[in-house]
Amino acid sequence: GRYVRRIAKLKITALPQRRNEWKGWILMAFRKRLQAVHVPHHKNTAGMKAETLPPPKEVLLPMNMHMGTPAVPVVSVGDYVRVGQKLARGEGSITCEVHATVSGTVLSLDPMPELFGNDLPVIRIENDGKMEADPTLAPRTAEDLAAFVEDLHESGIVGLGGAAFPVDWKFDAALRNNVKTMLINGAECEPYVTSDNRMMLDHGEDIRRGIELLKKYVKPDNFVFAIENNKPHAIAAMKELFADDPTMSIVELPSSYPQGAKQMILYNALGKVVYAGQRFATLGVIIINVSTLAKVAKFMDTGMPLVDRVVTVDGSAIKEPKNLLVPIGTPYRYLVEAAGGLKCEPGRVVNGGPMMGHAVPSLDYPVLKTTGSVLVFSEADSVIHEPTPCIHCGRCVSHCPMNLNPTAFSDDLEEENGDKRALLLDRDHVNFCIECGSCSYVCPAHRP
Fold it and tell me: Which own/partner contact pairs does 299-302 have at CB distance under 8 Å and 24+ positions apart?
């Protein structure tokens, strides 16, 4: 540890304007000397194939199920829509389309509070039970990478690992950069969540087809498939699937959190470091989540956009944890009922994993494109401990995967002057934070 601290204090003369990036690179080179966060796995549903949930009576489709500018509705109240029909168009450089996930009538376009408190329009559709597909849907036959990117913009697919960047934006970077390596992210490091694991076990042919598409359009030199070693069956399945492919390497990663974060998996699988604000494609790498890849293949082969996904339903308040294939927009209560209901009074309902997920106000909240799991915890497991004063033990610093100092952020936030507070946070590189929650998890004082 003392060597890392000494190196961090070095005054590097080369490229002084990027001194902090160089320090960060040197620290990352010594990451194996630093501790990792080892969270309980709780992969209770890893052996459970996803069951298909009957379509709900209605779905709710928010306009911001992606990173970037919210989509703009193109339908009106009373319109009849079919599965896969475009309901909202994306406008802006980073945005995404929204499609109907059931057939039926548009009931309302009223705003609803989203996860961060903003009110945005939500398209509510009453399901007629027919699940009629949009007759205009057809397989895509892109001739080159530019056409492939245009097709993907119509797919409504976002990063299903949680980042929610539109998939066309990700591959648009390949138009301007020479991509040498495609890194397939199968880490799934969050506790409880097993939806990616089931995708690797149950939809291998979709994944293989996705790799074929990347070979055709992106044309990388090689592929690296990175999976945490707590998924031995998925590792074995992928090794068997790509046994005859010399361009594919299967990398087994240690089961430590946050292994699935893009910065972490880039370093641990390829030994590369990305700076704040730098796009991965400039390093010759594009990272894609395994479930995202499978959905890309399904869209190109059928024309059906992203309308459903596998969701893990688990937590201490759930009677029968399981994986479910559900239409996007399905209210949580349908998933809970399919999992046997509640065995005790719920204390907290979480969209996503327990480390990086967000609490939702009720079971009426809908499944989003990024919802890999719905976790319902008992009141006993939902207690928020009262924070006590920082004892400067340094655990948050030694466990931060980005080598940041969370106690400095805490001090900065006490500054009352807003402009000065922003300068202090920028000085301490708050924009490097990936919001993994490792600092809060290891803090003995329960500080947020």
Answer: 299/140, 299/151, 299/152, 299/155, 299/157, 300/139, 300/140, 300/142, 300/151, 300/213, 301/139, 301/209, 302/137, 302/139
| Residue 266 phi, psi (nearest 5) | -65, -45
What is the reported pTM?
0.89
- Which alpha helices (DSSP H) does 133-283 contain, by range? 145-153, 167-172, 195-202, 204-217, 232-241, 262-270
| Cα 110 to Cα 117: distance, rounded to the nearest angstrom | 15
Q: What is the DSSP string of 270-306?
A: H-----TT--GGGGTEEEEEHHHHHHHHHHHHH---S
- The residue among 244, 178, 188, 235 whose CA lies nearest residue 211 is 244
Cis peptide before 258 (omega within 30 of 0): yes
User: What residue type is 105 in one-letter code?
Assistant: T
The whole-angstrom separation of Cα 214 and Cα 211 is 5
CA distance 290 to 194: 12
Q: Helices 204-217 and 145-153: crossing angle, nearest 10°?
A: 130
* Backbone φ, ψ for residue 98 (5° rounding): -125, 135
**Phi then psi dihedrals of residue 343, to 5 deg:** -100, 0
Amino acid, single-letter form, for residue 71: A
Q: Distance between alpha carbon 162 and the CA centroid of its chain, in Å?
A: 1
Which ranges of the chain have pLDDT less than 50? 1-34
Strands (DSSP E) contained in 34-154 are 51-52, 58-62, 72-73, 80-81, 86-89, 98-99, 104-108, 111-113, 119-127
pLDDT of residue 163: 76
Tokens of 220: 């990388």
367 within 8 A of 335, measured Cβ to Cβ = yes
First to last CA, the chain: 25
